[in-house]
Recover the amino acids of this structure.
């Protein structure tokens, strides 16, 4: 898990639910947020490791080796790193898509049942723009379509790998991500303001449903978290 | 256009249709193929430039400056570079997704009506795996979901940019691409053989329908080219 807008509130919800360990991976350490998490439930060991999802696969594997050596078992990976800025094509794709694929690929070394691993569960934070694009940010939306597709494929591979997967797809949520952002080639300079006119949800509402989706632990689910609701998307094509 | 399996046959069809110019962009020059194209219709000027879609945006813009200076006008861009090899995560994403976005972004400098450009048309070669993933190649399929989404967003931006866009989505086609390829983490070592057991189409059949889709020039169309047929996908979500 991370410490972004949805990430921090979701981490609070997870700590309340009371796992043995919660490992926070993010680019920048935020000791105040970590302390806050620790204070919520002293029974949960909260640790932080700096992690940038754009590093090469080998580096991610090294970090995971450290984490697995310390915790022995890891039950759930939440891939939640994301940026929204269509002026930054390469970075958007590197963080939102390649980073998620690489982190997933790296953890398979430890989880894949074909290698004697115990299996595991992956919650990928995608976005409703993965199926209903915000066309003013076509690169962001496309990167989210990619990870929705990738997650559904992962779920179909669960019988082979022993690793289940589901996607968490928030609608417009009042995070710093959507406060101000650039459209592709400035096709719509007011895109952030226009989104703000739509009904939105708070990060608290979104995080609450997120925890419910984690508890459901349902392989292949495409969870839509919008307007404070949690719905399973039934995709018929 | 390029000179891959579907690319060469489609280029032949385009030359027969008789535009003033056809510019072939591909990583490696293939003089025999270029000569073959020139022989089909001597009225069409066929030129070749080496182009690797993974180069930085600035380099693509430089190449396009050369091409636009020579031709004065360009009516259609076909983005067709693609690889299928889920052992190569970064390269798959760089060619199939980032390369297509960057080439599109670069040509907007010349076409965008907000800059006084004349508009244009973009045919993006995606894949049916963009909407029905082959889950044994989840990275490839996800990269194709990304470009299907990106193309649909481009189409919605046409009123702003003056540039229309549609996607060409071939089903399984007898190309060198599907002859032999790697699944993600070798989840299915026989994936290429298994695909071969499905009904397929030849590159000639696919190219024929491709030319029809180009002639239709329909903004926002999601063309499915499968089993020798051409169908518009109506996506209701």
């Amino acid at each position: 898990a991370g410490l972004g807008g949805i990430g921090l509130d979701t981490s609070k919800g997870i700590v309340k639910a009371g796992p043995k360990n919660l490992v926070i991976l993010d680019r920048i350490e935020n000791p105040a947020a970590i302390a806050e998490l620790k204070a919520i439930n002293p029974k949960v060991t909260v640790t932080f490791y700096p992690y940038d999802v754009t590093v090469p696969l080998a580096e991610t594997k090294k970090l995971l080796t450290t984490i697995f050596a310390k915790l022995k078992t890891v039950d759930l990976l939440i891939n939640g790193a994301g940026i929204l800025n269509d002026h930054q094509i390469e970075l958007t794709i590197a963080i939102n898509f390649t980073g998620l694929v690489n982190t997933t690929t790296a953890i398979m070394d430890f989880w894949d049942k074909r290698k004697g691993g115990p299996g595991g569960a992956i919650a990928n934070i995608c976005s409703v723009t993965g199926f209903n694009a915000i066309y003013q940010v076509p690169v962001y939306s496309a990167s989210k379509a990619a990870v929705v597709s990738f997650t559904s494929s992962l779920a179909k591979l669960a019988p082979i790998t022993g690793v289940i997967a589901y996607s968490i797809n928030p609608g417009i949520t009042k995070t710093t991500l959507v406060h101000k952002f650039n459209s592709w080639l400035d096709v719509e300079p007011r895109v952030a303001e226009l989104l703000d006119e739509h009904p939105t949800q708070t990060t608290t509402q979104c995080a609450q449903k997120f925890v419910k989706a984690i508890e459901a632990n349902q392989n292949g689910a495409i969870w839509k978290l919008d307007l404070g609701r949690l719905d399973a998307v039934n995709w018929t094509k």
